[in-house]
Specification:
Elements lengths: L1 E5 L7 H15 L3 E5 L14 H9 L2 H26 L3 E5 L6 H9 L3 E5 L3 H7 L6 H14 L2 E4 L2 H9 L25 H8 L5 E6 L8 H7 L8 E6 L5 H10 L6 E5 L6 H5 L4 E3 L10 H8 L3 E5 L2 H4 L9 E3 L4 H13 L1 H18 L3 H16 L12
Parallel strand pairs: 1-2, 1-3, 3-4, 4-5, 6-7, 6-9, 7-8, 9-10, 10-11
Length: 393
């Protein structure tokens, strides 16, 4: 099968990890993949965003920027048309974005099967944070893409409920959570070596990976590090973000500089090495529809996970079976669950073993996701007339 993968992500971050891994998995399964994407994205290092987009959003009124986003679909359609005529793909696979309807136009014009992956309800997300001016246009584009797709692939059942509310029937949805690379996470690296490299003196490590935002609640962890019960624990934050400086200052004021380490941005290829030295892996908070990438990496490396007791997390984890889940509205429950994990090595070992077994049982791997997507495309191709690729030329 020849798959045209279409997206508008211009940053090399967690979003792009998903994109790269699915493309790689398609190719490993023997399919040809043609990628239509922003040209600049491949020139960036991991963690680097688009300066142009950031500048435009900072200095240009929202509605003008949103009109530019919508107008970009016209240019993108010309790119898609050129790619379709040249490469003759069998299908279009797209990562959903707001104001991004060029894939709909191309799929309709060329009569190609069209599957859309949805990682977040962007109209809701951007409206909630006050960053939408043309709400009517944003809502229309989101609904158009979701309802036009032959299949919509939300990453959680919670997100699927949002998609269903927009009018997409259940038979045209398939929940596909995130995953990990089977080869890269097939074995656990030497955590002792990484601890030595980082200069960590304490025998046990609380760890977090990812872009550090205020709502992650990492300040609670630093506050708990002062407890006498945690004297043998080190807090390792692997990543960067807007609250890193504030957390560092909090650790300094508490006299914890020697027991709290911030690595800053690290190469994506080394994440496994850092997580290997975690004794407890933290997912302190998460938006209610997300499928956190870090969570699957923690599971793959057999780590005892502390995560919020939320519906999207319970789609993957079970409390006291393969993770410890805490009441997200209670600092006291967070404290108690964390203290219990830190004091009970047998519990950590059991949860870690079960976490790894869960990953295998459920097949939370990118190649398994790709197989399911290919299966859905094969079902669609049986309904589409052939040849399809150049019908609209």
């Amino acid at each position: 099968m020849k798959i045209l993968y279409h997206h508008r992500v211009a940053s090399k971050d967690g979003q792009y990890v998903h994109i790269e891994e699915i493309i790689k998995a398609f190719r490993q399964l023997g399919h040809e993949v043609v990628v239509v994407e922003p040209e600049s994205v491949n020139q960036r290092e991991f963690g680097e965003g688009s300066r142009l987009v950031s500048t435009v959003r900072a200095y240009i009124p929202g509605f003008i920027h949103e009109l530019a986003e919508f107008g970009y679909s016209c240019l993108e359609y010309l790119k898609l048309r050129k790619a379709i005529i040249r490469h003759r793909p069998d299908v279009i696979y797209e990562r959903y974005n707001l104001f991004f309807i060029s894939g709909v136009w191309a799929a309709r014009h060329f009569h190609l099967p069209y599957i859309v992956e949805v990682n977040s309800p962007l109209f809701e997300e951007r409206s909630t944070h006050g960053r939408l001016g043309l709400k009517w246009l944003a809502r229309w584009t989101e609904t158009l893409v979701w309802k036009s797709a032959d299949y919509v692939l939300p990453v959680t059942a919670v997100l699927a409920q949002r998609v269903a509310a927009a009018g997409v029937p259940a038979e045209r949805m398939q929940v596909i959570p995130n995953g990990v690379n089977r080869e890269e996470f097939s074995s656990v690296a030497d955590g002792v070596a990484m601890k030595k490299q980082l200069g960590i003196q304490q025998p046990n490590v609380l760890g977090f990976t990812g872009f550090v935002r205020e709502w992650h609640g990492l300040d609670r962890v630093i506050s708990l590090m002062s407890d006498s019960d945690l004297e043998d624990w080190h807090f390792l934050v692997v990543g960067d973000g807007p609250v890193k400086a504030a957390l560092q200052e909090q650790a300094r004021r508490a006299g914890l500089e020697q027991r709290v380490t911030f690595t800053g941005l690290v190469n994506r290829d080394t994440i496994r090495d850092y997580v290997s030295c975690f004794d407890v892996a933290l997912q302190p908070d998460v938006v209610d529809y997300a499928s956190p990438l870090k969570l699957f990496e923690y599971l793959a490396l057999g780590k005892a996970v502390l995560a919020p007791d939320m519906a999207n997390i319970r789609e993957i984890l079970s409390n006291d079976t393969n993770a410890s889940l805490f009441d997200n509205g209670s600092d006291e429950d967070f404290r108690c669950k964390l203290a219990r994990l830190c004091s009970d090595s047998a519990l950590r070992d059991r949860l870690g073993r079960n976490a790894r077994e869960l990953l295998e049982q459920k097949g939370y791997y990118w190649d398994e996701n790709a197989r399911l997507i290919v299966y859905l495309f094969q079902r669609l191709l049986q309904r589409f007339p052939a040849p399809v690729a150049l019908r609209g030329k």
